[in-house]
Each structure stands twice: as C-alpha cells, then as structure tokens.
Design goal:
With about 280 residues, the chain is mainly α. It has twelve helices and six strands.
C-alpha cells in the first residue's frame, strides 16, 4: 500500500466510523422517550428531581451508578421499599437506623411533606426507566439467602439441597425449596427488607424464628388478626400485612404496615403456599 492508498484508507475508515457513530446516536435519541418513560415526567417528578439536587442526595447515594457510594444506590428503591416506608424514613431517618450500631446515619433533612411526596415520585420514575438491568442486583440485607440462579434453584429442588442446608428429597422438602426461591425472587424481593439472621433487623424484622413467634402470637390476647395457626398467620402476613401490626412503630405508620400489600396479586396461590411452607421452617 502506497502513501496515497493509505490516506484513502484512513479517510474512508474515519468516514465510515463517523457515519456509524452518528447512526447509533440518532437511534439512541429515537428510543430515549420510550426507554425513559418521558410521558410520565410530570411537574411532581420534575420538582422531585429538584429536591434531589437541593439536598445533595447524590453526595451519598447513586442513581444509575452515578454519584457517591457511601449509601445505597437508589435506582430501584421504590421497587424495594413501599411508599409508606419511604415517607416515614424521610421524615425521621433516626427511627430506622442507629449511628452507633449501624455506623452510619442518614442526616435529618427536614423535608416538607410536598418535597417528600415529589421526591418519591421522582425516584419512582427513575425506577421505571429501562436502564438495561442496572443495578445488577437488588438491595440485600444481612443474612439473606444465597444468590443462586433460577437454574441452580431448580437443581436444588431436585436434590433436596438449599442455602439453609441439605434435606432429604420429599414433597415437603420440594415445596420448602420452592418457597425459598420465592423468598429470593418475589417482586418486591423479600430479601430487600428481611434477613434470616437473628437480630439483623432491616427495613423489616429479621425472620429468624418467625414460626416460633407466630405460634406464640396467634394465641395471645392482643393478636388482632384472623389466623388460628402458624401457617395461617404467615399467610395473613404476606397477603394482608396490616391485619396485625407489631408494636414499636418501626414497621408501620398510621395503622398501615410498611410491607407491600400487593403480594396477594403478584404471587400465585401456589407461590404463596410455597413461601408459607418455607417460612414455617424458620423456628
């Protein structure tokens, strides 16, 4: 190749690369309105974004992986935490985390009710942007179950092995293993709020020993629900979490549980029974 041919090749390849880049850029902009749900950008969402910047939330948190890494990424936070929880948390974070115990504490920002509402609207819009799978995993609390894939979970069911031990193959062990998979994969994910480690309370209480506590609770005089046994209480807690509220005020506000009340619709009857069977083993 002589000098003239080399120049032609260089200019030609540069032109082709520029045209490809321009085409990809135009195609990206064509898809942005659909990918970002632009039609859902309301004045509340816009004001919520202004609140995010006003209080410098990005100094600790990230959105789409951009920002500081001192506190959790909030890209999918509204899918991990219900609106009631987020409202109560933003009003007074100190009610949920202790600085000495957890070694960090979200500062009290003294947001107005309008700012809290609109910030949640903004975060909900962010959560529904098609961001190609970011973040790569949901928030997990300490002591959650393993991160096995669906295929690995299926293999566990066949062998009777799960993250909480090895069980003999039987119909009962099968349903418990399937229930553990529901615990890990339900949307919103149970592992985003609940731990299986004793004393590791997060956005929801630790579920270590939940079956034993349920047995004591359903026979207590101050129990306000309708269940008559452990399985009934666990089922009630999944589909109607506000039927009985624990004392202390950390997991509910104004008579409403922070736990989402949508599992009765998002989970099938079989999945609920599998989850109940799994939780009933946590004694």
């Amino acid at each position: 190749m002589n000098n003239r041919q080399a120049r032609i090749f260089a200019w030609g390849s540069t032109l082709v690369a520029a045209l490809v880049f321009l085409g990809l850029t135009l195609d990206s902009h064509r898809q942005f309105p659909e990918l970002t749900n632009a039609e859902n950008i309301t004045p509340q969402v816009t004001h919520g974004k202004d609140v995010w910047h006003k209080y410098n939330c990005i100094n600790c948190h990230t959105l789409f992986g951009e920002g500081a890494y001192y506190a959790p990424d909030l890209t999918k936070i509204t899918q991990h935490r219900g609106e009631a929880y987020l409202q109560a948390y933003m009003r007074d974070p100190s009610q949920f985390y202790d600085e000495q115990r957890h070694r960090r504490l979200m500062p009290q920002q003294n947001l107005s009710e309008e700012e809290i509402t609109d910030l949640i609207k903004f975060l909900d819009w962010v959560a529904n942007v098609d961001n190609q799978g970011w973040p790569p995993r949901p928030i997990l609390v300490t002591g959650g179950v393993n991160s096995a894939t669906g295929a690995e979970q299926a293999a566990m069911v066949l062998t009777g092995s799960t993250s909480v031990g090895v069980r003999p193959v039987s119909p009962d062990s099968d349903i418990r293993a399937l229930g553990e998979n529901v615990f890990r994969t339900a949307v919103p994910g149970c592992v985003a709020c609940h731990s299986l480690a004793p004393g590791a309370d997060g956005a929801g209480p630790s579920l270590a020993g939940v079956a034993t506590r349920a047995e004591l609770l359903v026979g207590a005089s101050d129990y306000e629900g309708q269940a008559g046994d452990v399985e009934g209480y666990l089922r009630e807690s999944i589909v109607a979490p506000s039927a009985h509220l624990s004392t202390g005020g950390m997991y509910s506000a104004n008579g409403v549980s922070f736990m989402p009340d949508t599992y009765g619709e998002s989970l099938s009857d079989d999945e609920i029974e599998q989850l109940v069977a799994f939780l009933a083993t946590l004694k």
